[in-house]
Every structure is written in structure tokens, then in C-alpha cells.
Write a structure and sequence with these properties.
heterotrimer, A alpha/beta, B mainly alpha, C alpha/beta, A: alpha/beta, six-stranded mixed sheet, four-stranded antiparallel sheet, 10 strands, 36% helix, B: ABC transporter involved in vitamin B12 uptake, BtuC, two-stranded antiparallel sheet, 25 helices
Chain lengths: 257, 620, 403
């Protein structure tokens, strides 16, 4: 398996606080890689740097051999990285299918077009994506009235619309009921398997993490403290210390922006 | 040296009124997020009430009691306004309340006229402070010194109130996070009322305290409005020390401006505001804006679809009727409809960026005026044929919008709005001041259409073609990928950027496009009236458009057109009455309270309720 | 719009076509369309309207004009030129007005003037002062009643030239009227006394004067005399700051329009004593037509007349005289009649000049004094406007040849 994403010595400090310290790792083709860690460990900061929303203090990020640092978010997306957010950010004034169509329009670089009707563009493809996440029945519903779990599924459909080779998912199951979580992650796992996509995700729910990830990284106080298979991580004494012994870490103030 | 010091003192004295009024505005905005246009009216009422009290209460004690009582009286009026007019509309979209406050301005104008009559009154001098003292040989009025002393004192009291009392802590909390105060179990409604009382009282004090330096007249409400907005923005919205520093800065610069660049009086403060905002986007003491929804509070906007068969038939039928007007309607009916279409197009162009883009512009008249002036200047100076001037007008306005848009795009929300206002005022003062080229306020006249169009009916058809054409074009673009991308950029910048949409570029392009369409309406205007004056570039013109959009319905596609057409038509009728401002003001307040979603939004709801229209969920 | 009116108007429009409008005047009254900024300029339009009402009473009491009563329709344009033009169209085509009159603001006057020329309607500009109205932008269909900026400034310059003041300061609101007034004064004074110099020109924003700063700036220039064009609230603030800071001590001040009751009365006992001003000393007439007018006005309205009252009154008298001379309400006949029209007024005979359509209505010039705690004009004299207008050759140059 070749590396899709390669991260070298990624660091970020806010003022005097080192939020992320020399984090290096890689994501392999077709891999489901989980990044876990207590609140404030630097997970979202890492994600934001990967997607160009934050500028790292230091470090390099290569996606399929190309450097990502310094590129704006939208360009990184165009290179083939999809992203879903911890708090969903769909377009509330549009219907479900239009949300997907919007991303498709952007993918085909048609956002400045003022001739065709947008709601007729790429509709079959959008419906196909909705079907993939099981949302086809709700395609014409107003996005603002969707249930939270449905919004998460919609975001997944949007993230898949330009056939990315890498998906970054920030807490994909946050705020969902336990049964829903399993369903969504199962869905994700199936999709990435079929499409041969790599996934890097953060997650709080350890059941989800251990059930679905191929590999797990543990981030603590901005540093990568462990990186290995589910069993390795489970048995790592330092990880146990963080998660079981030192509950205090969970209460630490969030320092990422 | 003595003169410079004396000038400094003059500036500091002038800052007193400005600070009092602006601090009230800043407080109200900070806590309630209401852009209170009626603040100038509170100031005017303070002056008139103070004047009346001073006629009754004698001596030094009477003078200062009058000032205080005037402030308190205006505070009570503020409470009445808040409870009757604003409380019912807090749930409405953000900035919607400004429409209600605009109605209040109109009502207060006519009530003041009824109460105090049309004549200007000269304020009485302050007993005991009539003379001057010589400082370094220069005469300084004693009252100026009193004002210089009072202002920091008021600032101190306010500071104490805000930072040391429980109410103050709540006010600060509300300024930073409105939701939190509700969570703290505080009755938000009463907190808002209290802040309105305080803010209005400060405005009333400002009006009364300036009496010895001026007086009271019926134009003072609008005359101070721009200045206090500038002060609040330069200082940073919601910041009291900021308001003080900005008031002093503006006043002192103005004094020196008067002496060394006498022609600068129109533009100086707007130049200062533009510079400050370009360097410090949130003002000198402002925090980055937290509330970023821009008209997105309340029920989310519905998805849009191009008109169905029924809609098309209705619009087509309407167009046929309009096309028949010259055959059955009067000459005046054509003139009136021409005016209405031009205004509706202008309002629709603002609605495009405000409604779809969430970009609140307080200076859209700049582009209407640019279009009108580009056409008029081409005709007057280059003797260009009407057809060419007409075509170049939207391009000129679009060009202006590209430049101004580029400068304003760095900001968001109310700060964006204020920067557009500053640039609109700059264009206005340029046109006003540059008499040799633009005709100044005597305008450009004799700008009539080409011979083949000259006449009420030909021009009526011409307006129908380009006006309705423009409206339909805006509507079409709303349904295209560009319009969708604009809505996407408004709904979620993060999501849009994360799916490859260059949100700033989309918004900038939309700003330019809306500017060009506004320019088109300006060009239609200038040839229908035969003349153009700086009044078409004024703040009031921008506000007119803003208000009709909210009245029509921000979150509906037809809001701009329907609001524009309805209000223009209503105005034609209402202005025939003697106290038309009172009527119009009450009408606006009435619509605001009864139909917070605007005319279109409210009638759609009614339609859904009675089953005439689909509610988008398949239910009827 | 009431439906009934619309149908009526539609029928009429069918009957007479779109261009010939005067047909409406065939009714029982002669209707004049009066457009003004009734709300924006309430303190000036109220006495003006009263003056119109007084004249209408007199004329209609004596049998009207051409055997028909004269009627005015008053409309408020909110001070917006675009609105004024819409109203003008409505007055002429729907209300059956035979001609237009009114406005105080120059820019609204200019807009109506251009519109009148385009549509071939007669417009008598009552109060707007801009020189352009009869000169640079003058046209066949526009006449102006009131003594213009140029005329009134020349009257003051004539008085100023007789003193030994050399260094002048000017202060005027920063807009066209203020600029015209300063330019006219400078031109007239330089012509009479070439050695004068203007040491500073102050341009406060209209109704937003920063009086303290203006006074300091003028004081700094140490002029011998001051020429003031500010009015309304600006004037009050300027006078108060100037008096407090001693700006006017030992200096002659010339105030354009300052003596008009509308501006002088609000100043009460702070009226700037010693200023030489143009205005209207209604309180000082002992006999003659001036006195008759003032008495009739006070009897009817129980208040003092303003300069606006006089202008309103003469406006109606001029219109009545014009229509009588024309013998009909046909626009071209009325235009021809207004050219060179003589009108008897309380201030004497005036003439609407053939060459530029400006009336020779003059103005009163006097010195401000205090009496019973109020400002009045003393040592006043009436200046006939005819003596302060440029020569015919100059007018030919000023007025575009085509019109």
C-alpha cells in the first residue's frame, strides 16, 4: 500500500501555547485511520492545518506527492480531499439534493455560470450519491428541517461528490445516538472499501474507533504518543494512563481555535 | 500656539454632544444588536424638550435641571418605543428592527412638528456661563469648558455603571453573548428595555446640553445621524471608551480641517472612518464581530424554484396588463408605473446581495447614482448619444462596485455595511463638491432621451423592457449556479470553501453585478426625469431601498420587487396628505409588527394556511 | 389612485391624445400646480402658502381671471427633484393644471425647469435663487420671480464698497447657493473696488456648521469685514459663537438674507446688531401698498408676514396678470404674455425681463438693530432689482443661444 497523505513534523503554536508539536504520520491507500485523544489534544488543529484553514508554524504535508502547505482550503479540496465537520455546515436554505448539486457544480467549476438552472444540473449524479448514503427518499426536503443524523449522512454524500481519494472526518458521529453511530460508520466503511478511499477521522467514541479503524493514532497535549493497531493501542500503558488513569486530561481547557 | 490650544478645546467641547449621543447608540447596538436609526430623533426630542423646560425653569439650577429632565423624558420615550414597536419584532431577522426604527423617525418628525411648530428655536444660554475666559490670549467660551469637564464625568459614570454594578455585568455579558444572558435566567426583555432607557436618555442629554451652542430644529435628527454612526464605528461597536476617543478624534480633526482645508467639511469624517476601518476592521476598540448571521436569524429561508406554470401565467398576465396601460391608463399612470419599476429594479438589485448574499449594504445608492451620473455626464460633457450613455451607465456603476466591493469585502456584517456607507458618502461628497464637472448640488439637467424615445409612452415601454428585463434577469441569476453559490457562501462559508467555492470572489462578483443593475435603474431614472442631483446618491436613498426589502421580505425571492413597488405606490398616495410622514411611519411600523417576514413572506404563510400554495413539504 | 379618476383620465387621454394637455383647463376654474417642500422647509413654506391664499382671496373676490376663479393645488415633493417631476406631470396631465409654480430649493427648481422646457409647460419659479435658472440653464418656458443670488449679493457689495475695508472673509454653506453667493459678491465687490482681497473662505456643511471652529478660523485670518451667507440653524450658531468670542467687534458684517423675518426672528435678542443685511422690514412700513399688504396679511392670518408671504402673494398676482394678458391659458400664449410682463405689487411695479425671464423684483437692504428684544432692520432702503442685473450683452453670453 502506498501513502496517500504524508505529514512531517507538523507544529502549531498559538501565542506561547504549543497546540501541536512535531506530529508526523502517513495515511495509506484504502486505510481507515483514527486519530484519538482527549479534548484539547490538538486533533481539530491538525485537521484545520491539513485542510488549509490554519497555517502551521512548521512542518510539511504531502498529498499524493504534492505539498499542501500554503494552499487555500478550496484548492486542497480540488486536489481530491473531502472533509466533514464536527458541527455540520450544510446550506440551510437549500434542499437536500441541492446541497449535493452545489458541491458537484463547484467540482465542475461552474459556480460563475449564469445561464443554466442550478437545480437541474448533475441531478442524476447527486441522486446517486444520496442513494449511496441512504438519503434518496429525502432528496427534495428542506435541509433546515433534517434530523441531525441525516445531516451527517448528507455531509458524507457532499464530501464524496468529487470522488476524493482521501476523506477527513472530524468527529463524524458526534451528537448521534449509539445505534446511529454504528450505522453511519458501517456505511462509511462500506463506501471507502468500494471506492478504495482512505479515511482519516477523529472520534471520541471508543467503540466506534475500535470497531472500524485499521489503525489508531493517539494524540496527547499536541504530541503523537502512540500509533498502531487496535490491539497495540489498547495495550499501550501510556494510552491507558491517559484514558483510564488521568481523567484530568479530559477536563483540560480547549486551546485549539 | 495659543490658537492651536484653543482649537483643541473647541474640538473637545464639540465632542461632548457627539459622545453622549453616540454612546447611547453604541450601548443599544452592543446589547440588543439593533441599529437604531431613530437615535437622531431621540437627540432632537432632547433638544426640544430641554428648550421647553428652560422656558419654565429659571436660573442656573433651572437650566441644569432642564437638561437632566429632558434626558429622562427622552429615556421614557425610548422605553415606550422599545416596548410598543421593537419588542414585538425581536424574533424577526437581524437588522429587521432598523426598519421599525425608521418608521419611528417619521412618526417623531411629524409629532415634533405638531408640538413645537415649524420654526427653528435658538437655545437659551447657560446662566452663569455666558462669557469667555482668555486662555493664552485666545477667547474660550465658559460653556465650552463646562462641556469639556462634563464629558469625562459622564464617561466615568457609565464606566462605573457598566463595570461595577450587576446591571452593568449583565449588559456586558449581553454585548458579548446574547444567548448566555437568557441562560443566566435574566429577563432579557427588561434588560433590553433598560438599555433602551439608558441609550435614549444619553441621546436626550446630548440634545439638551448642546442648546446653548445651537438650538433645536426639525432637521437635526437626520443631520446628526451619519456623524454618530461614524463615531460608533470608528470607536468599535459597543465600546464606550471607543465612542469617546472617536468623538474627540472626529471633533478635533474637524476643527483643524475647518481652518486648514475649509472645503473638507463634507468628507472629512468619512475619510477618517474609511481609513480606520481599512486598518482596524472592527474599529479602534471593537472586538471581532461575534454575531455573524446577517439576516439569518429566525426561520431559515425556504428553498427556491423557478416559477412554475401558474407563476409564469400570472407574471405573463401582469406583463400584458402593463403593456396595455398606455391604451387604457392615463398619462400619469404611465409616469407613476415608470417610477415604480425603476425603484423596484433598484430595490431588487440590493435584494440580490442582501437577501441571497447576506451582504448588508448601507450605501447601495452609490451605484444607482453612479449609473445616473455616468449617463448624465456622458450626455452633458461628451455629448454622447443617449443610447451609448444608457449602455455605459451600468458598466460605470459596475466598475464602481468592483472597486468599492474589493475594499469592503474584507469586512463582514455591520462593519461591512458601515464601510459601504462610508464609500457611498465619499462618492456623494465628490459629486457634491466637484461643481465644475458634476454641477454640484445644482445637478445636471437637460438629460433627455433620444428623439425616438422621447415621450411618456415610448419611454414607458422602454422602462418596461429594461426594468422588468432587469428584474427577470436578477431572478434568473438567482436560480443559476452563481446564485446558488452566493446563497451557499451566505449559509456556510466554511462548507462552501471546503467544497471549492471561492466565497469572497462570488460575493465580490455579486456585489459588482448588483451594482451594475442598480446603475441600470439609475440610467432609466435619469432619462425619465431629464436631470440628476446628488440627492440620488444620498444616504436616504440607500435606506429607502433597504427598508422596502425588509418590508417586502428578505428571505423571499420577490421581496425586493414587491416591497419596492408597494412602498413606491403607497408613497404616491400617502404623500398627498398633510401629515404624510406620520401616516407612512405608522404604516411601516404596522407592517413590521404584523408581518415580520415581510409582505411576501406573510402572504405566503397566509396562502399556505388557506391551502392556496404548497408549503414545500408536499402539504397543502 | 382612485379607479374613477383613472377611468376619467383614461377617457380624456383617449380623447385628446398625449401631447395636448391644456384641454383640461376648459373646466370651471383655472388650476395652477404648486410644488414645494412643504415638510422639509416648513417654516418657509407656511408663510409662502399664506401669501398665495391672500392673493387668491383678493383675485377671486374680484371675479377671478378671465371670468374664472383661480385655484392652486399644493403638492409636497419631499425636497426630491425626481418626486417633483412626477408630481409636475400629474398636476399637468391629470389635475388639469395650466402651469407650474413653486419650489425653494434651487436644484428642484432646475429639475422642474428642464422638465417644463422638454414638455412645453410654463413654469414660474417663485423662490429658488440659483443664477443658472435664468442664465446658464435658462429656457423659453421658465420665468423666475425672486431677486436672484447675484442681485442680492450685488446690493450688499455696493454697500460694502463704500467702506474702507480691504480684507474680507466669507462664510457660506458648502453647496451651490453658497458658492454662487460668494462668487457673485466677490465679482461685484472687485468690480467696484479692485483693491479688496479675500483672506479666507469658509465652507461649513449645510446645517452641520461647527461654529466654534469656523469663528476661530475667521479670527485667525484677521479680516476687516465678513460676508455671511449662512442661514437657519447655521446662522444662529455662527452668530452666537461669533458674538461670544468677539469675532464681530470692530468688523463690518454683510449678511445675505439675514434680515428676512424667517431667519432673523429665531435669533431674538441675539440678533447681530450692526450687520448690513438683505431682508424684509414689514414692521416699518408707514403707508402705501407695502403697508396695505402687511395689514391685510396680519388681519387674515393673525401673524407677521415673512419674505415668503410676499413672494407667494406676488407669485399669484404675476400669474393672474400673465393669464389676463395672454387672454387664454394656452401655454404658448402665456409664455408670450410673461415676456416683458408688468405686474403691480406691494413693493412697486416689477417686470419680467424679455431677455432672460428674470423679474426685476428688488430687495430691502438695511442694518440690523434690536428693538423690544427682537432683531429688526433699520435705515433700510428698497433696491430695485432692475439696477442689479447684468447688461443685455452679458445676458446674451450667459444664456444659451438655442433657448
Amino acid at each position: 500500500m502506498s501513502d496517500v497523505l504524508e505529514v512531517k513534523n507538523l507544529s502549531k503554536s498559538f501565542g506561547g501555547i504549543q497546540a501541536v508539536k512535531d506530529v508526523s504520520f502517513s495515511v495509506k491507500k484504502g486505510e481507515l485511520l483514527a486519530m484519538i485523544g482527549p479534548n484539547g489534544a490538538g486533533k481539530s488543529t491538525c485537521f484545520n492545518m491539513l485542510m488549509g484553514q490554519l497555517k502551521p508554524t512548521k512542518g510539511e504535508v504531502y498529498f499524493e506527492g504534492q505539498n499542501l502547505i500554503g494552499r487555500p482550503t478550496r484548492e486542497i479540496w480540488r486536489m481530491g480531499i473531502g472533509r466533514t465537520f464536527q458541527i455540520t455546515g450544510t446550506y440551510t436554505s437549500m434542499t437536500v439534493v441541492e446541497n449535493v448539486q452545489m458541491a458537484l457544480i463547484s467540482h465542475h467549476r461552474r459556480t460563475m455560470s449564469i445561464l443554466p438552472y442550478a437545480h437541474k444540473m448533475y441531478k442524476p449524479k447527486a441522486m446517486e450519491l444520496l442513494e449511496l448514503v441512504g438519503m434518496q427518499d429525502q432528496a427534495e426536503r428542506h435541509c433546515a428541517i433534517l434530523a441531525y443524523g441525516d445531516l451527517k449522512r448528507l455531509e458524507l454524500a457532499i464530501a464524496l461528490c468529487h470522488d476524493p481519494s482521501l476523506l477527513l472526518m472530524d468527529e463524524p458521529t458526534a451528537g448521534m445516538a449509539p445505534t446511529e453511530r454504528i450505522k453511519l460508520m458501517q456505511l462509511t466503511a462500506d463506501i471507502v472499501k468500494n471506492k478504495n478511499i482512505s479515511v482519516l477521522f477523529t472520534e471520541h467514541d471508543m467503540d466506534v474507533v475500535f470497531a472500524h479503524s485499521h489503525r489508531i493514532m493517539v494524540l496527547n497535549r499536541g504530541e503523537l504518543m502512540a500509533n498502531g493497531s487496535a490491539d497495540e493501542i489498547r495495550n499501550d500503558p501510556r494510552v491507558q494512563e491517559v484514558y483510564l488513569g488521568g481523567g484530568s486530561l479530559f477536563e483540560e481547557a480547549e486551546i485549539q481555535a | 500656539m495659543g490658537l492651536i490650544f484653543a482649537q483643541l478645546l473647541t474640538g473637545l467641547a464639540n465632542a461632548a454632544t457627539l459622545f453622549l449621543v453616540a454612546s447611547g447608540l453604541s450601548l443599544i447596538f452592543g446589547v440588543t444588536r439593533i441599529v437604531n436609526f431613530a437615535h437622531g430623533s431621540f437627540y432632537m426630542l432632547g433638544a426640544f424638550i430641554g428648550y421647553s423646560l428652560m422656558q419654565v425653569l429659571p436660573g442656573m439650577f433651572g437650566f441644569w435641571s432642564s437638561v437632566l429632565l429632558a434626558g429622562l423624558a427622552v429615556g421614557v420615550i425610548g422605553v415606550i418605543v422599545e416596548m410598543l414597536v421593537l419588542r414585538p419584532v425581536y424574533k424577526a431577522p437581524e437588522l429587521f428592527q432598523l426598519v421599525a426604527t425608521f418608521g419611528v423617525i417619521l412618526v417623531i418628525q411629524d409629532l415634533a412638528l405638531l408640538t413645537w411648530g415649524p420654526d427653528d428655536v435658538l437655545g437659551p444660554r447657560a446662566p452663569g456661563l455666558k462669557g469667555i475666559v482668555r486662555i493664552m490670549g485666545e477667547p474660550v467660551p465658559k460653556y465650552d469648558l463646562a462641556l469639556i469637564a462634563i464629558t469625562p464625568f459622564v464617561l466615568f459614570i457609565l464606566w462605573y455603571l457598566i463595570s461595577k454594578t450587576r446591571i452593568g455585568i449583565l449588559v456586558r455579558a449581553a454585548t458579548q453573548d446574547r444567548e448566555m444572558v437568557g441562560a443566566l435566567g435574566v429577563n432579557q426583555a427588561w434588560l433590553f428595555t433598560g438599555v433602551f432607557f439608558l441609550g435614549a436618555t444619553l441621546a436626550g442629554l446630548g440634545g439638551a446640553i448642546q442648546l446653548p451652542k445651537g438650538g433645536a430644529d426639525l432637521l437635526m435628527d437626520f443631520n446628526i445621524l451619519a456623524a454618530i454612526f461614524v463615531v460608533v464605528v470608528i470607536g468599535g461597536m459597543g465600546s464606550l471608551p471607543g465612542a469617546y476617543v472617536a468623538a474627540v478624534l472626529i471633533s478635533v480633526l474637524n476643527v483643524f480641517g475647518v481652518t486648514y482645508i475649509p472645503q473638507s467639511t463634507l468628507v472629512l469624517m468619512f475619510v477618517v472612518m474609511a481609513i480606520v476601518l481599512l486598518i482596524k476592521p472592527y474599529g479602534l476598540f471593537g472586538r471581532e464581530e461575534v454575531a455573524g448571521e446577517h439576516g439569518q436569524v429566525g426561520e431559515p429561508e425556504r428553498p427556491i424554484k423557478p416559477a412554475g406554470t401558474r407563476g409564469r401565467v400570472i407574471v405573463g398576465g401582469l406583463l400584458v396588463i402593463l403593456a396595455m396601460v398606455p391604451f387604457f391608463g392615463s398619462n400619469f399612470a404611465q409616469v407613476l408605473i415608470t417610477d415604480i419599476i425603476i425603484f423596484a429594479l433598484f430595490a431588487a438589485s440590493l435584494h440580490f446581495i442582501l437577501g441571497l448574499g447576506g451582504l448588508v449594504s448601507f450605501g447601495h445608492a452609490a451605484f444607482f447614482g453612479s449609473g445616473a451620473y455616468v449617463a448624465a455626464l456622458l450626455v452633458s460633457h461628451a455629448e454622447s448619444p443617449m443610447e451609448i450613455a444608457f449602455l455605459l451607465a451600468p458598466l460605470g456603476a459596475g466598475g464602481a462596485a468592483i472597486i468599492i466591493g474589493w475594499l469592503c469585502m474584507r469586512l463582514t456584517g455591520v462593519y461591512f455595511a458601515m464601510l459601504t456607507l462610508a464609500f457611498a458618502q465619499l462618492i456623494w461628497s465628490l459629486v457634491y463638491q466637484w461643481g465644475e464637472f458634476t454641477g454640484g448640488d445644482d445637478g445636471l439637467v437637460d438629460i433627455w432621451p433620444a428623439a425616438w424615445l422621447n415621450g411618456t409612452t415610448p419611454y414607458y415601454y422602454f422602462t418596461l423592457l429594461f426594468g422588468i428585463g432587469g428584474i427577470l434577469l436578477l431572478r434568473h441569476v438567482a436560480h443559476t449556479p452563481f446564485g446558488y453559490a452566493l446563497r451557499a457562501s451566505r449559509d456556510s462559508v466554511r462548507q462552501a470553501e471546503a467544497t471549492g467555492i471561492n466565497t469572497k470572489r462570488i460575493q465580490w462578483a455579486a456585489f459588482a453585478f448588483a451594482g451594475a443593475v442598480a446603475g441600470l435603474s439609475g440610467a432609466l431614472f435619469v432619462f425619465s426625469k431629464g436631470s440628476v442631483f446628488p440627492t440620488e446618491l444620498e444616504l436616504a436613498k440607500s435606506f429607502d431601498a433597504l427598508i422596502v426589502i425588509f418590508l417586502g421580505g428578505v428571505k423571499t425571492l420577490a421581496g425586493g420587487v414587491v416591497g419596492g413597488a408597494s412602498l413606491e405606490f403607497a408613497k404616491d398616495f400617502i404623500t398627498r396628505f398633510e401629515y404624510w410622514r406620520l401616516l407612512l411611519g405608522l404604516l411601516i411600523i404596522f407592517v413590521v409588527i404584523l408581518a415580520p417576514e415581510g409582505i411576501v413572506g406573510a402572504s405566503r404563510k397566509l396562502g399556505e394556511r388557506f391551502g392556496f400554495v404548497d408549503d414545500g413539504e408536499g402539504r397543502r | 389612485m382612485k379607479p374613477k379618476n383613472t377611468i376619467l383620465a383614461a377617457a380624456a387621454a383617449f380623447a385628446i391624445g398625449l401631447s395636448s394637455i391644456s384641454a383640461f383647463a376648459a373646466g370651471d376654474t383655472i388650476i395652477i400646480g404648486e410644488i414645494n417642500h412643504y415638510k422639509r422647509m416648513a417654516s418657509f413654506t407656511a408663510p409662502y402658502k399664506n401669501g398665495i391664499e391672500l392673493a387668491l382671496d383678493e383675485i377671486n373676490g374680484a371675479g377671478g381671471v378671465l371670468g374664472k376663479p383661480l385655484e392652486f393645488i399644493y403638492r409636497d415633493d419631499q425636497g426630491k427633484p425626481g418626486e417633483a417631476i412626477k408630481i409636475a406631470e400629474e398636476l399637468m396631465t391629470r389635475n388639469g393644471a395650466v402651469m407650474l409654480t413653486g419650489t425653494i430649493f434651487s436644484h428642484v427648481g432646475l429639475a422642474i425647469s428642464s422638465f417644463a422646457a422638454e414638455k412645453k409647460y410654463l413654469y414660474l419659479a417663485a423662490e429658488p435663487l440659483a443664477d443658472a435658472l435664468v442664465w446658464a440653464k435658462g429656457n423659453k418656458y421658465t420665468f423666475r420671480l425672486r431677486a436672484s443670488t447675484f442681485m442680492q449679493a450685488s446690493m450688499l457689495a455696493e454697500v460694502a464698497a463704500k467702506t474702507d475695508a480691504i480684507k474680507y472673509a466669507t462664510i457660506a454653506p458648502n453647496y451651490a447657493y453658497g458658492k454662487d453667493a460668494v462668487a457673485a459678491f466677490k465679482k461685484a465687490l472687485k468690480a467696484l473696488k479692485p483693491e479688496v482681497e479675500f483672506v479666507t473662505e469658509q465652507w461649513p456643511a449645510l446645517f452641520k456648521i461647527d461654529a466654534g471652529a469656523e469663528v476661530q478660523a475667521i479670527e485667525r485670518a484677521k479680516p476687516d469685514a465678513i460676508y455671511n451667507v449662512t442661514f437657519g440653524g447655521d446662522l444662529a450658531k455662527f452668530v452666537r459663537e461669533g458674538t461670544t468670542r468677539g469675532l464681530f467687534e470692530g468688523r463690518k458684517v454683510y449678511g445675505l438674507l439675514t434680515g428676512e423675518p424667517e431667519y432673523l426672528d429665531p435669533l431674538k435678542d441675539e440678533a447681530p446688531v450692526g450687520w448690513v443685511v438683505t431682508g424684509y422690514p414689514w414692521y416699518d412700513f408707514k403707508d402705501g401698498p407695502n403697508k396695505v399688504f402687511v395689514d391685510a396679511y396680519r388681519a387674515k392670518f393673525n401673524e407677521r408676514p415673512g419674505i415668503g408671504s410676499l413672494v407667494g402673494y406676488i407669485t399669484v398676482k404675476s400669474i393672474a396678470a400673465g393669464i389676463t394678458k395672454a387672454g387664454s391659458t394656452d401655454t404658448e400664449a402665456m409664455v408670450a404674455a410673461f415676456k416683458g410682463l408688468d405686474v403691480d405689487t406691494p413693493i412697486g411695479k416689477i417686470n419680467f425681463r424679455k431677455q432672460d425671464h428674470q423679474s426685476t423684483m428688488g430687495a430691502f437692504v438695511g442694518t440690523v438693530a434690536l428693538k423690544d428684544g427682537k432683531g429688526i432692520m433699520v435705515d433700510w432702503s428698497f433696491k430695485d432689482g432692475a439696477n442689479y442685473l447684468p447688461s443685455d450683452e452679458e445676458v446674451m453670453k450667459l444664456r444659451p443661444a438655442s433657448k
